[in-house]
Design brief:
8-stranded parallel β-barrel; two-stranded antiparallel sheet; 34% helix; disordered N terminus; binds flavin mononucleotide
Length: 406
Amino acid sequence: MNRRHFFQSALAAGLTAATGAGASGSTPRGLAPGSAAPRIRQEGEAHLFSPLKIRGVTLRNRIAMSPMCQYSSEDGFATDWHLAHHASRAVGGTGLLIAEATGVVPEGRITPNCLGVWKDEHIPALRRMTEFVTAHGSVPGIQLAHAGVKASRHRPFHPERGQYVPVEDGGWTPVGPTAKRYRSGGPVPHELTPTEIGEIVESFAEAAARSVKAGFQVIELHFAHGYLGHSFLSPLMNERTDEYGGPFENRTRFLMESVRAVRAALPEETPLFVRFSCTDWVEGGWTLEDSVKAARMVKAEGVDLIDCSTGGASRNADIPVGPDYQVPFAAGIRKDAGIATGAVGLITEAAQANAIIADGRADLVLMGRALLRDPYWPHRAWVELESDTPPPIAREYAWALRETRR
Ligand SMILES: Cc1cc2nc3c(=O)[nH]c(=O)nc-3n(C[C@H](O)[C@H](O)[C@H](O)COP(=O)(O)O)c2cc1C
């Protein structure tokens, strides 16, 4: 299944789930008598609306906005669009908002319109976002990223969407572990030298320190979806023969160096997440067992949570997309590596999300498209679940909605 088909079937499955048909654990909407919606109470076991404390940060609930590129920056700067995108989900009650894949260097952006945090000048506009989000009860997080061999492409709403931007039109030569095209017709990436790898590790650490200055309280490292971090991990993308390629210990070297450098740059109270593609879904690729092993290793270096996505290393992966399809990875890593996990991917229903937390399959539920469709998803879930926790919505609205819960 190629990337476009993957995305189309993912969207199709998402729409099915949103209508309630075929969604595992889906529940009729509303509060009709006899509804199967579980009533959740503040006391006792973890549920979707129980707070989550990690290091010095407490999330008001277990709902996180998954990082989603907005392709709306120039020279990496956050704009009013980013403020609106984050502000609306903060008002709507989301516990944690993870800002999109944000370039730690200009060449680390997927497109020339991606967000960046490679220079101090980026801080004020980011701070405007984080201040609003924090003032309305959400925790601002940021995903630090380098797009590697998938960098320098046109944004999805450009006529040549997804195509590489030529150098003469403002693009750049992508870099990666190996000088191997990601797809035919694309540019041959520059194979990074060990010195250049060290410089990128340093850029991650500097970007993390800058992010803290900008007010972000959770830092996530992007080691998924075929971008630079994942491309070092996956044997499908990493064909090096030096200390950064070959055996597992070598393929995880860039990960471990990045984690150590970033952790050292962060205050003790700041949580550090890593997003993995927990499987490549391809024979001979990165596996769940590899993810469990890597999760144990990064946990020992101060990582607090693994955000469990999949895929992206191979355009030929056959991915069984459907509701909860990635949740078993979050459950497996949580159990076998003894680290907190986030579940993501076609989680669209209140009862579905609540069950993931209540069953102990993950500590956090990350949502992408469901929150794009409905910034007030957390409040709607709170109504559906008949939660007796405080309403997860800005006080400016909460007082008016409290009486009716609608
Ligand atoms: C518009 C859009 C942009 C995305 N950008 C990112 C990104 O910046 N970083 C990332 O790790 N995943 C990205 N993703 C993947 C999402 O974070 C999420 O893992 C995926 O959409 C599955 O969750 P969902 O079914 O709730 O949408 C993006 C997805 C969408 C729809």
